[in-house]
Design a protein that fits this description.
The complex is a heterodimer of chains A (347) and B (445). Chain A has 347 residues and is α+β, with helices and mostly antiparallel strands. Chain A folds into two domains: 94 residues, no CATH class; 185 residues, Cupredoxins -  blue copper proteins (Immunoglobulin-like), CATH 2.60.40.420. Helices cover 24% and strands 29% of the residues of chain A. Chain A is built from four helices and 19 strands. In chain A, strands 13-2-15-16 form a four-stranded antiparallel beta sheet, with no helix packed on it. Chain A has a four-stranded mixed beta sheet with strand order 5-4-7-10, with no helix packed on it. Chain A has a three-stranded mixed beta sheet with strand order 14-1-17, with no helix packed on it. The longest helix of chain A has 28 residues. Chain A is globular. Chain A starts with 11 loop residues before the first helix and ends in a 6-residue tail after the last strand. With 445 residues, chain B is mainly β. Chain B is built from two helices and 19 strands. The longest helix of chain B has 14 residues. Chain B starts with a helix and ends with a strand. The relative contact order of chain B is 0.13. The chains are: A alpha+beta (347), B mainly beta (445). Strand 3 of chain A pairs parallel with strand 1 of chain B, so a sheet runs across the interface.
Amino acid sequence: MVKPRLGRGRRPWTLSLTLLATMTASTRAQAAAPTGWPGEEMPLPLAVKTPADLALKTEAERQYLIFNLLAGGKVAFDAGDFSKAMKKWEALLRLPELPAAVEKVVRPLLAEAQHGARDVAVLPLSEGIPPGAGAPIGAAKPSPDPVARTVVSGTASGGGELGPGGTVVWLKRADGPTPRPRPGKRRAISQKNKVFIPRVLAVTAGTTVDFRNDDDFFHNVFSLNDGAKFDTGLYQAGTTYSQTFSKPGPVQLLCNIHASMVAYVYVVDSPYYTQAAGNGAFIIKGVPPGEYELSAWHEASANVVRKRVVVRPEGATGVNVAIPADKRSPPFVPDKYGKPRQPNVGY
Amino acid sequence: MNRFGSVAAFSIVAVLASVARAEVPADAPPVATVDEEAPPPLEEPEGYSPPEGVASTPPLSISGYLDVGFVKAQGDGTSFPAADTRLPADYGVDTFATAVNTRGEVASTDSGGRFVNGFLPRSVDIADRPSFLLNTLNIDLRYQTASSPFMVFSRVQLLPRHFASGNDTRVYVEQAFGRFAPFATRELNISVGKIDSVFGIEYLETQSNIRTGITPSPMARYTTGTSVGAKFFVRQQIAALQSAVSLNVAATNSAPFVESLQPPDASVAGSPNVSARLGYELNLRRFQLKLGGSALTGPRNDQRDRSARQRMLGADARINAFGLSLAGEYVDVKQDPGTEEKQTGLGTFPLASGFLARGYYVFGGYTLSPGWRLLARVTLYGRYGHRHAVFTGFRPVTVASITGGLRLDLGESVILKGEILRNDEIAGAPTVKNDVYTSSLVYSW
């Protein structure tokens, strides 16, 4: 049987994305998703007269189903209905032979929706934060907060070859004081296969990070950044070293034994912060409405990117941040005494 | 539309699907944080790691530096006193001509027709004329993929010079080798090609963007050359002692001498020189101690006769602590007399004397790190060097040098250095005006 072609060089699932783009443009023009769209039934009747027609219709319906679940989930997500978005995207991921690209874009958003659904379950928006709800380990119990809180979401783009993933995004109030952030829960950075995992970690000031050697050989972690200088010394496989980060800003982490290893802890001085997913999408929850300065830091960028954002009672979405990859790599990686290391020497 | 295009389209869709909010470019500085503790964030990011294969370092890297200097040498730029017309020259070799740059080149080696027997330093041929010098344009190429145990490295240097015969830009392959690191979990590698020395420690800073100061020590001419051969390196960490021991062994066509008379990269005797350094390092949080002992043995670089041997012994020490860097090295060189003419890169010479040299240097530097963007570090440094050398049949010559300098690291890529060398002829040679004032501007990329 000859499969119907949907376009020269075009994969069938790209139709879904094209439809989604079209729908989105329409959505934007109307400022809200029209009721019933996307519908459960395919809006275009397709006559079936031949086996080829049947094959085409079968494929079209499958594509429409993918589109429907894909786009319907996004519309629900943007409306804050994380539970509905979660259901649609979970159903989408259960489809057999789902194109990898669709799965790739949906999975991070599904994770966001799952988090959102869980948060909403324990903390309905605009109802304040009950004492102890979601409190980090070791942090003081929060006081009741009568202020309505909402969500700021958007996309970071750029970042050069590394891409926008990991961009640290935070908000500081432009129309008043920004509350002092609490130290976050303890975090961990592993050294595994001569790589720091994660490579970029955002924490609030005062947060303690455990460095763990998960390799079978010795490692070291050190930083030469002012205000954050430390050195774990040589530490063996399976051992842990803890370091508390207090000074806001980036902290470059290096290994004195393996010159290729590099990672960053970014210390933020705001409670409203997050890190972008691999595709650049980010979402900051629990933000009171107001006027903010949004800042974004990325290891490939020479400077922090800043822009003004107005957060309305219903939140702020579609916040775009362009990350220039304009930071020059230093000619040498220093050892823990600040001496340059030479890759050709190898030791 | 390819996959990336589709993903990008989806990202755009995700953005456009929402109504754009009012956004104003921020000119004002951020408002300070107040002492009012916020409720805990609803969600704390768990960090981000890029997908495997998205390495921050591309497999092929091109780096290098440009070293431009300004130099003034006293006298006529050599260490031959103008009034000394004795023939044959009673010291047989220019053992104390003063280096003017990081490569160890001297201002002049013009002996005025006198007999020169042994080491002949490379020259920039400016005599006593104050001069700008384009010391080195260095280009490094390195290729290594994240998953491969192999690394290929080459260092090519362009050396524009002006001689009596006219302008000449020498293209010098300083290093070119492949390295194999068979074990991902061990610090062990094997390098084959034109490799740097393993003797002592000064070979680690022969490049002007690495060396703290400008000029090399009086002993560098014996230990810092590169040669064709193979090298084995292994290091074992000892966590309980915050220490490591290392072994570097090389078999090369020639000893790591640095001079104009060094033979080409081929093996003249047909038998390699074997050299090694055994090292110990203590790496405490604020204190580092490195100790090493080195040895070399093999046929002379300039003799086909393998029975004419040369050997070197050395010891070195380094300390880094609280911004202070201390280093010292002792080197002892012995060459048997040759049994035939001296085979060199400049042709044959009639006499291959036996040669003995011993000397040392001590170096100290203190670095301040203001943390300013345009002035990252300020380093004051000084060095004392002492060398005693004798060619069999000639009078021994003992010289000493005191070097002082200032280095400014202007950001991460630009270094400005200024240095004064005072040279003293202690014994065996007449006193000569041969002090040097030199400077260097190094731009790395």
